[in-house]
Each structure stands twice: as C-alpha cells, then as structure tokens.
Amino acid sequence: MIDFGDFYQRIAKGQLSHWLETLPAQLAAWQKESLHGQFKQWFNAVDYLPHVTPERLDLLHSVTAEAAPNALSEGQIQGITTHLRTLMPWRKGPFHLYGIHIDTEWRSDWKWQRVAPHLSSLVGRTVLDVGCGSGYHLWRMVGAGAQLAVGIDPTQLFLCQFEAVRKLIGGDQRAHLLPLGIEQLPALGAFDTVFSMGVLYHRRSPLDHLYQLKNQLVSGGELVLETLVVPGDAQTVLLPGDRYAQMKNVYFIPSTDALANWLEKCGFIDVRVVDVCPTTTEEQRKTEWMINESLADFLDPRDATKTREGYPAPVRAVLIAKKP
Predict the structure, then answer these.
(1) Which of 133, 146, 195, 275 could connect to 129 by a Cys-Cys bridge, CB 3.0–4.6 Å?
(2) What's the mean pLDDT in 109-124?
(3) Is 111 annotated as a binding residue?
(4) Is 92 part of any known ligand binding site?
(5) Please, what is the end-to-end C-alpha distance for the chain in angstroms?
(6) Does the annotation place 189 within a ligand binding site?
(7) DSSP structure string for 9-61
(8) How many CB atoms sit inside 10 A of residue 77's CB?
(9) Is position 280 annotated in a ligand binding site?
(10) Pairing mode of beta strands 217-229, 315-322
(11) 294/32 Cα distance (integer angstroms)
(12) Model-level pTM?
C-alpha cells in the first residue's frame, strides 16, 4: 500500500499541521474502500522498480535523471522500461529517466514555459496543484524552489505514475500526491500558491471551484488558473452540448473577460490574463506512451479551427490573481 507517513511528518510542524486532524483517516478509508480494480497491478509495477539515486537530477529545466556510468545495466534499464509501460497511458510529462524518454500525450513542459515567467517566486513556498495528473508540474515547482509541492488528483493511475518517478529520482520528499479531489479538502488557508490547470471546465459549478481554490490560499496568496476559453466579451460563456472535443464532462467555457469577472466576483484581486494560446496537435498528441485517441481525433477533419462538434477548437488562457 502507498505509505503517506512521510507526508504526515513533513506537515506536522508547519502551516498545514491542522490538516492532520482529518487527512489520515480520509486516506485510510480510501485505501480500504476505494481502490481501483487495477490498482494492485499498478502498485506492483512501482514496487518492482529499483530505488535509484541519480548522479544528475534536473528539475529546473525538465524532469531529467541521469545515472553514473555503468550504474545501471542494460537489463535493469529494460526492466525499468517494462514496469513504466505497465503504467500507460502517460498523459502529462515528459520525463527523461536514465535514457528512457517517456514521451507523454501532453507537452506539459510547454505549458510550464508559458506559466512560469508570470509567477511570483516559488522559492520557499508551500504550493498546491489541483488536478495535478502524474505530478509533472509538481517536480517543476520543486525545481523552481518550492519547499513543499502538494498535488491532488483522484485518478489512481496518476498516483502510481508519480510514485514511480519519485522512486527513480532518489525518493525526493519535497513533492507529494494525494488521491483526493478539491471538494474533499477542508478550507486549509495554508498554501502560498495554488495552481488549477485544466480543471475549471470539468466543474459543474465553476464559481464553487474558484471559492474552493480561494479557501486553500493564505491571505496574499497567489492563484494560477489555466483553463479553456472562447472568443467574446465579458458576457460570453459557452455551454457545450453532450460533448466538447469528444469529452463528456465539459461544462462552462468562458471568454477571458468573463473569467476575469468570475474571479473578481469570488473576491480575488489583481486579476491578470497573462497568456492565451491555442492548443496544437504538436502539444497534445498520440505517442508510443499514450496510444489512445488524442487531439487530432477530436478536431473537425475539414476545419482544424473547430472541434468535431463544431465548437471553437481548444484555446487555453492563464490568469493570475491574489487572495486579499
């Protein structure tokens, strides 16, 4: 079973210590009652991986680990590759681990390059990443100086992918992933920076999501919000029908002006739109590590500016705001 004891010890004396009143029981119940049918297979893949301490680890420019010469045999590399392939599909990355290039569906490093220049310094900060996927951005946050990066995502495959990477980069305890959704967190008011990237359009009540994010921040803390947007004025919001780009669980896609209004309505200040970028089939695509359908399959084959349903093709905006 996944052992969260290191995380409990890490938060026991800091600004997150009050979370220990509820979190251990919550995660114990999850381990007892809510495990996915394939969780044992995924967990075993992680368990069989060797503990490796890299000679060189780069989390600032990428997630790259390199071993000393001859530290890993060809057979060991093949074994690591086999276990990592058991954890497919890999959606968020990429990871470069001892010559193994996990070419994920998303070039999450491109998103980080767009976001990072606009952030307040993460040095020494306690950070929350909501809907963090495999945890790729958690490692980049650590690379940028965060003292603690906490990710939450209920998808159990992502938890196992995260723990696999952690094991292969030396067991770094500055990042942790918890199998929870934002609605399962109490109002902690303890994070210096909160990220919500690629989550808002999946929420049936987007304003409630913004309030949940606000409730996790310290006073003066920074929200980094990345989500789908559509062209239009402050009153423009797309409510798709059954599907958007073949996704069923897409609810509200606002314009950037409407999104800024939502943030201000929820009490955020200093709201800024810092980036708007179309999602391309170079940034999101099939790879040998993610062989399912991807963005190219979700766009109109006759007009790539539209989804198969006829809506505007995906464009993502990054907004930054502060809690008073």
Answers:
(1) 195
(2) 98
(3) yes
(4) yes
(5) 40
(6) no
(7) HHHTTSTTGGGGGTHHHHHHHHHHH---TTHHHHHHHHHHSPP---SEEE-SS
(8) 15
(9) no
(10) antiparallel
(11) 34
(12) 0.97
